[in-house]
Specification:
Layout lengths: L15 H25 L4 H9 L18 H14 L1 H20 L2 H14 L3 E4 L7 E6 L2 E8 L10 E8 L2 E8 L5 E3 L16 E8 L22 H30 L16 H33 L6 H28 L1 H4 L11 H10 L5 H14 L10
Parallel strand pairs: 1-4
Antiparallel strand pairs: 2-3, 3-7, 4-5, 6-7
Helix pairs in contact: 1-3, 3-4, 3-6, 3-7, 4-5, 4-6, 6-7, 6-8, 6-10, 7-8, 8-10, 8-11
Length: about 400
């Protein structure tokens, strides 16, 4: 059955079993359509609606406000499942989780509860415009509020977001805020033309006298060199774990596509001595090696997620040291997942053979997707941060990348 024909009942308070089953169904449907979706590269508006209808956007919100009540270990597994079907959709789900959960870490309990409740009740998708290497947004006082002007050269989920986190210069300080995208002055451009993650809706955004109010602020504006509260910095290790899991999900999807192709289409090599490609010892060896590498990397990812989740559970009592130790676990997983996913997505053609490079299959999309996003921040800096901790007992410097 096409996923578009599936109707989910009682999307408020779905069980863990419900959420995982729905993620698997959506992923399977995406896998069937992935080549076409990649070729078209359109904004994934219908796909986001499916995530909303399945209750997946609210999986991490508390049960008492209608969410699924899952922890981050499970949430990141959902990201991995979705990425098996289509890498960009896994990315979008993970980005939403970090952006929507950030309010619980950065706001006081009452405001966080109110905004979380609104998010669940309205089934909002959260994006962000906070790329730190692309400063360009400026807040200016006007009347009883502010107006936002400027441009971000890319903003994942630019056109599908209902709400965004953003930051901007305000005099000599930096202001962070959360705002709905339906206010006048928000412009999302259709200019994402990269080789991979073609459904991630990562085009540029512009703000033209976009209204911002005091109640939108996430904390008071601060000088750029002022350290933020430790709890509010958990967005970075979690977003890095989102990367880890959709890289691995993409590689898992590539291997599954290759296995399916070998079973149905690949011909045995003329000197193999076997009648089926699935019995070729060299193909079997590679499938085994790839599977072992993915299992190891997924276990490392889950372990890292549990470590960062434990630090988050300390709440406002968490120390910079505890955050740093947990972040190192996430960054070690990032290093491993990057290497494993790039290796497997480029080498699955060794299983499938020359005919599998035909454009109709678009098996190259798996590699294009991980190659594009693994350049988000240099993985060798993540390896350096892990090395600094092991050799010199230095925790990573806090930033939107570390």
């Amino acid at each position: 059955m096409s996923q578009s024909n599936v109707v989910y009942a009682a999307s408020r308070n779905p069980t863990r079993q419900d959420l995982f089953a729905r993620a698997e169904e959506i992923s399977a449907d995406l896998s069937q359509r992935a080549a076409e979706l990649d070729r078209d590269g359109r904004p994934p508006l219908a796909e986001i609606v499916k995530l909303k209808n399945a209750g997946l956007l609210n999986a991490l919100h508390p049960i008492e406000i209608g969410g699924g009540g899952l922890d981050w270990v499970d949430g990141l597994r959902l990201v991995r499942i979705l990425a098996r079907g289509e890498s960009s959709i896994g990315q979008l789900l993970g980005y939403h989780y970090v952006n929507s959960q950030y309010v619980y870490w950065a706001l006081d309990a009452a405001r966080a509860h109110a905004l979380g409740s609104e998010t669940v009740a309205k089934n909002l998708y959260w994006g962000a415009a906070v790329n730190p290497r692309d400063p360009g947004l400026v807040l200016t006082r006007r009347g009883n509020g502010y107006v936002l002007n400027g441009r971000k050269s890319f903003s994942t989920a630019a056109r599908v977001s209902d709400y965004i986190n953003a930051n901007a210069a305000l005099d000599d300080k930096i202001a962070g805020f959360a705002v709905p995208t339906n206010r006048p002055g928000y412009v999302a451009n259709d200019d994402w033309e990269n080789i991979g993650q073609r459904l991630s809706d990562s085009g540029s955004v512009e703000f033209h006298d976009f209204p911002v109010y005091e109640e939108d602020f996430v904390g008071a504006p601060t000088a750029p060199d002022v350290a933020p509260p430790v709890l509010s910095t958990f967005n970075t290790p979690f977003i890095q774990l989102v990367f880890v899991n959709f890289y691995l999900g993409t590689a898992e999807g590539a291997l599954q596509a290759a296995v399916d192709y070998v079973r149905t289409t690949t011909r045995p090599w003329i000197t193999s001595g076997v009648e089926r490609a699935a019995d070729d010892p060299y193909i079997l060896e590679r499938v085994g090696e790839f599977t072992a590498a993915l299992k190891a990397s997924a276990a490392l990812a889950d372990n890292a997620a549990a470590a960062v989740q434990a630090g988050l559970a300390r709440g406002r009592d968490v120390t910079a040291r505890e955050r740093g130790e947990a972040a190192v676990e996430a960054y070690a997983a990032k290093v491993h997942a990057t290497h494993v996913s790039l290796d497997i997505t480029s080498r699955v053609f060794e299983l499938t053979g020359a005919r599998s490079t035909a454009d109709k299959y678009r098996f190259d999309r798996f590699w294009r997707n991980v190659r594009t996003h693994t350049l988000h921040d240099p993985v060798f800096y993540k390896a350096k941060e892990v090395g600094e901790f092991v050799l010199n007992d230095r925790i990573p410097e806090v930033s939107l990348y570390s």
